[in-house]
Amino acid sequence: MINKNRPYKRTDRVGDSIKSILGQIFLNKLFLNHNGLITITNVKVSRDLRYAKVFISYYSSDDVFFDTLKELDKNKKYLRLHLGHQLPTKYVPELTFHLDDTLDHAFKINNLIQQTKKK
Length: 119
Prior knowledge:
Elements: H1 10-28, E1 37-45, E2 51-59, H2 65-74, H3 76-86, E3 94-99, H4 102-118
Parallel strand pairs: 2-3
Antiparallel strand pairs: 1-2
């Protein structure tokens, strides 16, 4: 049930906090072997706050996204450690990283619209 004082759910607030904290960790503390821009686009947290799906988009001239994903998986313990110091919850969620392909879908839809306009 949604509280009138807080118009969105606790899982959304915790997801936003995780997104912000992970962004700071990526920026200041975590150095990956691959060059490219990692953007955290969304974080979905389970109702019990024990699991979090982190959706990222990766921009690079190389096609090394899956190597970067493996490297992020290797650093899960490090990320959870720093998350635990800053996140005000009883549990630190298990993190899973996923490719956010929303932009790819948007480009495909845009191309389809452009093609139909040309006809």
